[in-house]
Amino acid sequence: MQIENIPEIYQQENSQNKDLFIYDYKMTEDVVKSKVQLSMNMFSFLQVGKKQVHFADATAMVSKDQSLLIRQGNWLWTELLDNDDIYFCKLFFFSEQILLDYLKKYELKEPEAKEETSFFIIENDEYITSFLSTLSNISQIPDKFSSQMLSIKFEEILTYLLTKYGADFEKYLYSLISKEISPFKKTVESNAYSNLKLEEFAFLCNMSLSSFKRRFLREFGESPGKWLQDKRLQRAHDILQEGDLTASDIYLDFGYGNLSNFSAAFKNKFGINPTELQKS
């Protein structure tokens, strides 16, 4: 049985969001078994059919009334049940970093005990059905807005499931966090919102610039320039939205030599000028 890595096999090289990704997956009777390894955490929202999912340490039988949240690093294979012709599910992948950002934003405290199972079973309901309908519509939104919309939908589903399942779901969310974060990642993430140049990041990591770029790509899945720009612009967006500071006050803090370059990068990412955001 061939093993494939997901979501890599579904993503295009120019995918605009490395932290969140949705994919509509169909399995037909022509594909009885499919074995995959997850490199991101994944919601599998089953919408049509039945399936049996085999993990290294467990098996889950899932109908269209249920969905799964599955930890990254799992390998699994799936097969159809009861001679169903097809099953269809919407896969919603998310990175560990965006989960960490969510937990920090809402000040959720790490529980003493964690749910150490490979998956968490979700009972579908009217809210989740409605959520999936809106999620489907995101594919029709221009790329420059869809990334922001996915972030909103990610927060929405986590918040709803925390409300629905309480401490059990919170424990499982924390079990998705790696036990250790590499010193390299800690250095990068702790300085992400500074105006340090790549050469200075490489110095802090005790690496040459070329070694730093290769390591960054391996750890974060994209180039350091793109990752840092996205992080800094998102932080700038949040600050400007609060209304206390203007673009003129902050552009230097995020590594831009002049206001014009900052405004151009901001508009390219969010579709509006910084001044438009402040007026909204």
UniProtKB/TrEMBL annotation:
UniProt keyword annotations, A-Z: DNA-binding, Transcription, Transcription regulation
InterPro entries linked to this entry: ExsA-like_N, Homeodomain-like_sf, HTH_AraC
Residue ranges annotated for the HTH araC/xylS-type domain, each copy included: 182-280
A Gene Ontology molecular function term of the record: sequence-specific DNA binding
Gene3D superfamilies: Homeodomain-like
UniProt name for this protein: AraC family transcriptional regulator
Organism of this sequence: Plebeiibacterium sediminum
Organism taxonomic ancestry: Bacteria, Pseudomonadati, Bacteroidota, Bacteroidia, Marinilabiliales
